[in-house]
Design goal:
single chain; about 350 residues; alpha+beta; T-fold; eight-stranded antiparallel β-sheet; 9 helices; about 25% strand
């Protein structure tokens, strides 16, 4: 019996040796493959992308981002969403349909805190296409009649509105979706190590050039409308996750001694005013993280916690001001193991 076992082991040794040699070869090959670095402008912001590949795929990356721009950018007058907003005949593309369906689902889950029909109010407050004065209550109330995710629906390959004046705005989900599109491109090329960042919305996979998991900093919420302050509040291990952050500490303006944030509450029609300063969300895709981060900034920390209770696929890191104005943090218990510092 022992002789048979020994013979069997001896017969298996060459295959085991080949397996070890093959594994060593693959590891060496992976380590010798360079990391590419691409950056540029898109969606009115900047992108920074790092990935391990023999090929420089910037042209392919920009082609994917162009698809998103042609579908979802309100600043592109020929985009699908612009034609929908102008009530022009258009066939919706797959990108628009995917994002619209996701946006509607998240709107329902957040009871309208996330709402892609908020565009008229955003524009009224001066954060959209044109600058504006502080609007009157009468004007806000009139435009609120055009806001509500339940007032638009997908019929075949077209959008049905309850009022032709309703406008869609995907700015709170499009950057995240753009990061997802690039991640899909990389997976198609079998690229396993990458980090995609578009305007702060991130998808990370595998390891960095340092052969360690990707670590991403969350900015400390300091009033900084020109985006010069980069003080870090914490660092998170974001490998194999998507991450998005929304905050009111950078995008704001002062008028008449009042501070107005860029996040508009679709229900009240006014910029939000509560203690939550920054909401970071981690999940499996960046479009979802992007949308929920915006929703949480509208809802405030207590309502956001309730949503997190019923959505275990989401992890969040909140920075808020206490009654004395001091910065405090709250994060999902599952996120603790991802906090690096």
């Amino acid at each position: 019996m022992n002789n048979k076992t020994n013979k069997k082991l001896l017969w298996q040794l060459p295959f085991l040796a080949l397996l070890i040699i093959g594994s060593i070869f693959i590891i060496k090959q992976q380590r010798s493959t360079p990391y590419q670095h691409n950056e540029g402008q898109v969606f009115g912001t900047f992108y920074h992308i790092t990935y391990q590949s023999e090929q420089d795929l910037q042209k392919e990356i920009e082609a994917e981002l162009k698809k998103v721009d042609n579908s979802l950018s309100t600043f592109n007058k020929q985009s699908v969403i612009s034609k929908v907003n102008n009530n022009e005949p258009t066939n919706l593309d797959e990108l628009f349909i995917e994002v619209f369906d996701k946006a509607k689902a998240i709107s329902k889950e957040t009871n309208g805190a996330f709402d892609i029909t908020v565009a008229p109010l955003v524009n009224l407050w001066g954060f959209g296409f044109k600058q504006g004065k502080e609007p009157s209550k009468q004007k806000i109330d009139s435009l609120k009649q055009l806001v509500g995710y339940e007032k638009v629906s997908l019929i075949g390959k077209g959008i049905k509105k309850t009022d032709k004046r309703i406008m869609l705005d995907c700015s709170a989900i499009a950057k995240g979706y753009g990061s997802d599109m690039v991640a899909r491109l990389f997976r198609k090329y079998d690229i396993k190590n990458f980090m995609i960042e578009i305007g702060g919305e991130i998808v990370a996979s595998g390891n960095s050039e340092s052969r360690v998991p990707w670590k991403i900093g969350v900015n400390k919420p300091v009033e900084d409308s020109i985006n010069m302050n980069t003080e870090i509040q914490t660092v998170l291990n974001v490998t194999n996750k998507a991450m998005a952050t929304s905050g009111n500490y950078r995008n704001f303006y002062y008028k008449g001694g009042k501070r107005f944030a860029h996040t508009i509450d679709p229900k009240t029609g006014y910029p939000v005013q509560h203690s939550l300063l920054s909401a970071t969300v981690l999940t499996t895709d960046c479009a979802t993280a992007d949308a929920y981060a915006t929703a949480f900034m509208v809802m405030g920390i207590e309502e956001a916690k309730k949503v997190l209770e019923s959505h275990k696929e989401l992890m969040a890191y909140f920075i808020y001001a206490d009654n004395q104005g001091k910065l405090q943090v709250w994060y999902s218990p599952e996120l603790e193991k991802k906090i690096v510092q």
